[in-house]
Amino acid sequence: MSDALLWRLDDGGMSFRYLKIGHAKARAQVRREIERSRWLAARHMRVPHILRAHESAGFVAFLSQTVPGVVATHAEFAPGMLAEAIGRGLAMLHALAVADCPFDETLRTRFARARRLIRAGEIDATNFDERNRDLTPQVLLDRLSEQRPVEDLVVTHGDASLSNIIVDDDATIGFVDCGHCGRADRYVDLAVAAQEITQNLSAAAARRFARAYGETRWDTSKARFFADLYELF
Predict the structure, then answer these.
(1) Which listed site, 36, 43, 75, 103, has its alpha carbon 20 to 30 Å from 156?
(2) pLDDT per residue as tens digits for the range 146-199
(3) Is the pTM of this model over 0.85?
(4) Residue 106's Cα: distance from chain center in Å?
(5) Domains defined along the chain, listed by start
(6) Which residues contact 205 (CB under 8 A, 6 or more apart)?
């Protein structure tokens, strides 16, 4: 879904490798993914292991191993069990020492990114959720700027959709597309994951997700805020 190019390489065995190449503006995206994936791997998180990276004047590329498992939307677990596994996986990620994380994904950074995307005309409001369908990207950003909550910073994945969550046979969680990992409010991840669990599994599964994560008092207003901010992602 980025401007990068991605290939899956079949080595003839039971595993695959992935080659990702970014030209032009995608170079920065791929560079972020390399450095943040390596940072997470050094802290024993299940993320793609970067086998080789290359940067030249024209492109940035890396070759990585597969994270064992399948995308969460294809995992063969009961909805509640899958939701709980995702909750535990995000809790482990968020438990990393935030003071050691060099990557800034706070609201200041995300608002600045949204402003650049809006100016470039790269946000399509027709893709907004129905609740925001009558808003322009600029109006939505202005509204969010006025509602800005106090941030509770942890180490986040930054794009915790189900398509970026990998589930192994033993319900161990891994993460891919880690280019937006960084210091941010925990609801950057929780809001997106809960929304997709509700849509793809059920509301009951989303409640089990929150309990497994350890969020016994779900902050509805903050979840709504970060779900709306994700529209500008």
Answers:
(1) 75
(2) 999 999 999 999 999 999 999 999 999 999 999 999 999 999 999 999 999 999
(3) yes
(4) 14
(5) 5-65 (3.30.200.20), 70-230 (3.90.1200.10)
(6) 79, 80, 82, 83, 197, 198
Q: Which residue has the tokens 């398509």?
A: 163
Residue closest to 182 by CA, chosen among 46, 36, 48, 50: 36
Considering the candidates 142, 159, 170, 189, report the single residue annotated as catalytic.
159
Maximum Cα–Cα distance for the chain, whole Å? 54
Please check whether residue 82 is in contact with residue 206, taking contact to mean a CB–CB distance below 8 angstroms.
no
Mark whether 159 is an active-site residue.
yes
Burial, 222: exposed, middle or buried (Cβ in 10 Å; 0-12, 13-18, 19+)? buried
Joined together, the tokens standing for residue 197 give: 């669990």
Give the chain's count of helices (H) and strands (E). Answer: 7, 9
Computed over every residue of the chain, the mean pLDDT equals 95
Query: What is the rounded radius of gyration, in angstroms, for the C-alpha atoms of the chain?
Result: 18
pLDDT band at 78 (very low <50, low <70, confident <90, very high): very high
Instruction: Kindly give the pairing relationship between strand 182-185 and strand 153-156.
Output: antiparallel
Mean pLDDT, rounded, for 37-44: 98
Residue 192 gets the label, from left (phi > 0), alpha (psi -120 to 50) or beta, of: alpha
Note the pLDDT tens digit of each residue in 195-218.
999 999 999 999 999 999 999 899
- Closest-CA residue to 47 (of 190, 179, 212): 179
